[in-house]
Amino acid sequence: MIRYLFTRFLHALFVLWGAFTLSFVLLQVMPGDAVLVKFQDPELGLSPQQIADMRATYGADESAITQYAHVLGRTLHGNLGYSIETGLPVGQMLHAAYPTTLRLAIVSFTGALAFAAICCALAILLSGNPVGRYLAAAIGAIPGITSGIPVFWLEIVAIQLVSFHWKLIPVVGLSGWSAVLLPGLALAIPISAPLAQVFMAAAHRVEALPFIDVLRARGVSPLRILYAHILPNALPPTLTVSGLVFGEILAGAVVTETVFGLDGLGQLAQQAVASQDVAVLQAIILISVSGFVSIGFASEIIQPLLDPRIGRSARQRKY
Amino acid sequence: MPHHITPTRLAVALPIIVLALAAFWPALFSSQNPLTGQPSEYLTAPSAHHWFGTDQFGRDVFARVIYGSFSTLSSAVLAVSVSLLLAIPAGLLAGLGSPRVERAIRACADIVLSIPEIFLSLSIITLIGPGAIHVALAVGISQTAGFVRMIHTEVARVQATEYMEAAIGIGGTFSQVVLRHVLPNSLTPALALASLRLGTAILAISTICFLGYGPPPPTPEWGLMITEGRDYLSTAWWITTFPGLAIIFSAWTASLVSHAIRSKP
Amino acid sequence: MTQTCLSIRDLDISYTRHGSTHQALNHVSLDLHAGEMLALVGESGSGKSTLGRAVLGILPPNASVQHGSIHIGAHNVTHLSERAWRQIRGKKIALIPQDPAHSLDPVRTIGAQLAEALRPHQSSFLKRSNTRAEAIALLDQMGISRPAQRLGQYPHELSGGMRQRVLIAAAIAQRPALIVADEPTSALDVSVQVQIMALLATLRRELGTAILFITHDLALASEQTDRVSVLNHGVICETAPTRQIFSAPKTAYTQRLIANLPVFHQTPASVPDLRTPTPPDVIKVTNLGYSYAQTTRSGYRHAMQNITFTVPKGRTLGIVGESGSGKTTLLRCLLGLITPQAGTIELLGQDPSRLKGQALRTLRCKVQFVYQNPHVSFDPRYSALKALEEPLINSEQHNPAQRRKLIDDVLQKVRLSPTLLARKVSALSGGQAQRLALARALLCQPEILILDEVVSALDVSIQSEILTLLENLQKDLGLTYIFVSHDLSVIKRLSHEVLILKNGEQIEYGKTEQIFSKPMTDYTKHLIASIPGLTSSPQAAEHS
């Protein structure tokens, strides 16, 4: 088991390095370089000498390999470089931005989980009933529709209804958790779709297995079958989409923070793209890949705990 | 095999036909001009004359939604085609090649998949610049790794079946067996995924256009229309609402098609 | 006699699918008395499982009881509500399911599942020490070693036989008066099957539980049971004491079922004429060995070692092995899908592992393989015709007209109607698909057929037809067979020589007659004794 986890850990490090390299190639090597693009703008009125100095400061005048070695080296030392746009250290900018995004992610993930769980429980419990079957089918179709809702549109509609029309939550002048409540819940609706879809598919597969009939024949109640047997069996496959959900939340954060004017990582990424601030964008990519990789690693550790059949070859036999 | 027109088939076919007509023959639905409006009629609510109302320049929102379908749908089709074009050779190579090739391709796919698609698309756009076709390319390239992994899994699955073993057993050569059995049986699920991905591509494209990296105004593009309408949210809800519904409708149609392909016997 | 614990009267059950109705059971009446064991025998599609599910009230939603009644003890359960059913299930009636591998929750421990069976309406488990003690006692009663330790284990850590014992323990947990055993041994090895049957007999004797024993295997039904009911297309055609069914079957259907049983097949395998000189060997296997690399420290695990045999042209070698005996590895080596690490294989004078390209393909055609499950050995998109054309297209020697002619000829040989050619393979019945698989193999003009459990998935009557077909093909075409089966009675009927595998080793090899009359090892003796219906019929007779 330990050995298996160690290999997975090495793989995670490899993926992290690969993503770093890929983003470096995409952002810093290909089109001349960002400094040139940024400061050649005639409006800034910089002399060629000044531009050359700037390039030297940012290390843009060296060969690609040297730059790569330099950037990799400083990143390994925890130095993420300087923003071309603001001139601030990227680490400092990220430090200021991450709490908002984290709060947003927590609210939307919790909301999505709750929404998906309610959908699934209703769909399964109702499907046993001859009349409820139609209602269950209707509930089962909800994730298919919510997954097609564009986040930005949903949020604009939410602002319009909740803030302007019903005047429940104001849009401006909020901070901390209250600022992310409405955006988080709006984001939760499309995020819940893949969770609900995978969980429902897994639950239906489990439901069709012979042991469910055996349990019924033993006099176990449908509610108990649901929470003590179907749920634990359907959970491990649902965990495998956790990485996907993480990606969706980040993608959602870019849009949500733009729509609601929140100062988070998503907003930062958006501005970095607009101003071609590659150091910032690369740092954000690195952070999200670390998040993705850690979530994958965590789910690999949790999976065998939820399903004893996984990783049994690596485990020590008790007898 | 006879093809009857059943209610289910009709229910799948109808939205596709509507979308295709809107994209390629927009004049069929609306006689109004999507680019120039009457400034006197700005921000009028939906009425018999302007079904979806008019925007801040007096342009007919219905006409803009209809004409916008070409931009979004063609970009989505281009994006998915790019993904498939890149992913099919890579996926087949991973599934049929030597273990070393397989490992290499899988490692590359793992790396690309670890970067959230939106960041990958945005990075590519910083590289190649904004614009309708660039957005489609960026979204297509970002989705490729998922396709590669999926095709690889399918090829591996088909290769492990008894009918593959039997096909080799009755004297088929490697290429015969691949052409007759591996390709058709592994690409059907890939096709189902492709049409599902058409839906996610529509969403991704409209998101990037919403952020302002798509075609410049006054192009009728659904995501862009929503950005433009945001400022008039409190007074003219129709400018943002209808393009959004159009996006939902097309994404939902894509999932219907995917479902129809998967459930085909 | 004693009180009736199950009484079914004039039961009609039908399924509705896509608007059309299918009558699964037609006026079925059945009585089961306390402590009695009744075998309900029927082929696939006879409605036997529907009856079992109806008795437990777990019919699928598209099935409905249209007429008749079911009484469990004094309760009329025909149209009981789900809530009322829960008070009966487990307490008055229990189920021993068919497939132990999928009948236990894979993510809950054995202990948790037994506790739930003991007290299905309470939720705090195993904390109460008496529940734990009861669970241990149950496992002990089932003959499971170290029962206290088993409670913490998961189903996948137990063997198939052990899982079935756990399921039986769960079934008797609340001491129901009636148990429905739905094909409880069909997924198990023959030797385990005997143990489970013995366990059922003990339970019945000790607890006085009535058992409705549902099976497709008439030979198995002859063991331990008091009476047999024969179900055919939803109608009970005969119910009689076990001995009477076998000695004096009344209906033609029962007679045919009995005649088709390989055990009762009196003609021995077409014994080759010993006066003619033995034909040359076409298969020579010497000291074959194969091991799998394992990730744990134990290093390599031998899948098989030191396998040596020869098969002369036109003869059949029967290979017998339970799961894990290494027979699959042996077959994969013979097919050249894996290369053995030790020993040599010679098929028609050639070593498949040394061949490449066209030569290998030619040899592959000469050595054809037929699978246990015919349906999955065909491309799901193919029609029967396309499947048969494939080997002919591969050989590149025929024009379409010639291909059609060859296909018509081979269909005649395997007795398959040409009208089926347009159908998808998945639309064919098991027997038809297996004939199609044979036809496809024959179109390669093989000299050797490797038959892997080819009749195990089929009903007895179809099984008998396929076996006869195989015998005729061998006689007409001079084919050499390697016939793998877990069913000794089938092996006995078809094989000239028998090889017995256990744990990857060849423990017995010789002439069929010799092995069946004078088995050398205890394992073989045990296997032969495990053949249902051969040795235990007298016991059953004693009982009734």
TrEMBL record, chain A:
Give the matching Pfam families.
BPD_transp_1, BPD_transp_1_N
Alphabetized, the UniProt keywords read:
Cell membrane, Membrane, Transmembrane, Transmembrane helix, Transport
Query: What membrane topology was assigned to this protein in its record?
Result: Multi-pass membrane protein
Concerning PROSITE patterns, the annotation shows: ABC_TM1 (PS50928)
Q: Which InterPro entries match?
A: BPD_transp_1_N, MetI-like, MetI-like_sf
Show the stretches that span the lipid bilayer. Answer: 12-30, 104-127, 134-154, 174-196, 278-298
Compartment list: Cell membrane
Q: Which GO terms describe its cellular component?
A: plasma membrane
Q: Where is the ABC transmembrane type-1 domain?
A: 98-297
Q: Name one GO biological process term.
A: transmembrane transport
Record PANTHER family: DIPEPTIDE TRANSPORT SYSTEM PERMEASE PROTEIN DPPB-RELATED
Family of the protein in this entry: Belongs to the binding-protein-dependent transport system permease family.
**Protein name, as recorded:** Peptide ABC transporter permease
Which organism is this protein's natural source?
A: Acetobacter okinawensis
From TrEMBL, chain C:
Q: Which GO terms describe its molecular function?
A: ATP binding; ATP hydrolysis activity
> What CDD domains does this protein's entry cite?
ABC_NikE_OppD_transporters
Tell me yes or no: is Transport among this UniProt entry's keywords. Answer: yes
Please indicate which superkingdom the organism of origin belongs to. Answer: Bacteria
Q: Where is the ABC transporter domain?
A: 8-258, 283-528
Where does the sequence pass through the membrane? Answer: none
Which GO terms of type biological process are on file? Answer: peptide transport; transmembrane transport
Compartments (UniProt record): Cell inner membrane
Q: Does the keyword rRNA-binding apply?
A: no
What GO cellular-component annotations does this UniProt entry give? Answer: plasma membrane
Task: Please classify the protein's predominant subcellular localization into one broad category.
Answer: membrane
The UniProt entry, under SMART domains, shows: AAA
Gene3D superfamilies assigned: P-loop containing nucleotide triphosphate hydrolases
Q: Which UniProt keywords apply?
A: ATP-binding, Nucleotide-binding, Transport
**Any single Pfam family the record assigns to this protein:** oligo_HPY
What is the membrane topology listed in the Swiss-Prot or TrEMBL record? Peripheral membrane protein
The UniProt entry's sequence similarity note says:
Belongs to the ABC transporter superfamily.
Question: Under what name is this protein listed?
Answer: ABC transporter domain-containing protein
| Taxonomic source organism | Acetobacter okinawensis
Q: Lineage of the source organism?
A: Bacteria, Pseudomonadati, Pseudomonadota, Alphaproteobacteria, Acetobacterales
